[in-house]
Amino acid sequence: MDINQTHADSFQAGLLKRTGTRKKLWQQIWDAKLLYLLVVPGLLHLMVFKLAPLFGLVIAFEDYNTFQGIRGSDWVGLENFRLFLIDPYFLVLLKNTLLLAIYNLAFGFPMPILFALFLNEVRQMAIKRVVQSLSFFPYFISSAVTVSIVYTFLSPQTGIVNRLLEMIGVEPVFFMAEPGWFRSLYVSLNIWHSFGYASIIYLAAMTGIDPHQYEAAEMDGANRWHKMFYITLPSLSNIIVVMLIMNIGSFLSVDLDKVLLMYNPSVYETADVIQSFVYRQAFASGGFPNYSFGAAVGLFQSIVAMVLVVSANKISKKYSESRLF
Fold it and tell me: Residues in domain ABC transmembrane type-1 (predicted)?
């Protein structure tokens, strides 16, 4: 009886403790109800526009018909994926997508880091604020406007670039119709459009560096270059690794808006990427849109992106303390 009574008392005590914990948790939620209400719009947006559409990915495995709906459409399994992978044009699309991604990562990723490092060395706060404001201002300009600016500067008739070329005796070049120029123009425009805004992350991280490290380095005779490369840059290593992993996750995703605005049939050999090809094939103006094909290719890109992120994260565990999960 004593043992049974002891077990009963322990169970009752545990039950009362869990009940008290739940009451305490609900009391804390109720006390901060206004703060939780601020989260509700974001959660609704996440569920409606991010989570709910995931159930529609089933059309990637169907011959989806708008009138029949998801349940009424014929199941085709992996046929849409097979059609995409055996397409003779697939290798051209993959090559163009990979090259744009590699160039954008190789030249676009270091640019915000370098800009933040040098901007951090500016001692005149007024100049620093003006330069920083001007640098991230392009981020808030739409892709249509930025591409229009490029067209204006590179116009073979009135563009300032071709005017300068004529002054030194060089024939005007129609840059936007030359396949060899597309990748350089795309990457340059992408860097100009986003490097200033991306540098904010690194500038914010620099504010957390202990100023005593710089004072100690000055006492040891270190100049600005020494402090930049031996204090500031190593202190940013964790955030650099995290941002690199996130960039690798979007490796196969180019800025479709810029590509669609910049390319034309004359530059398809270097400008046509997986996303633009899907746009033309799946959402063509003639006939019914092939939503199943577009969903299959989009899912294929997402799976590749997930593999890249997981791989990069595992590599970062070996060589750095930073990782996403």
Answer: 94-312
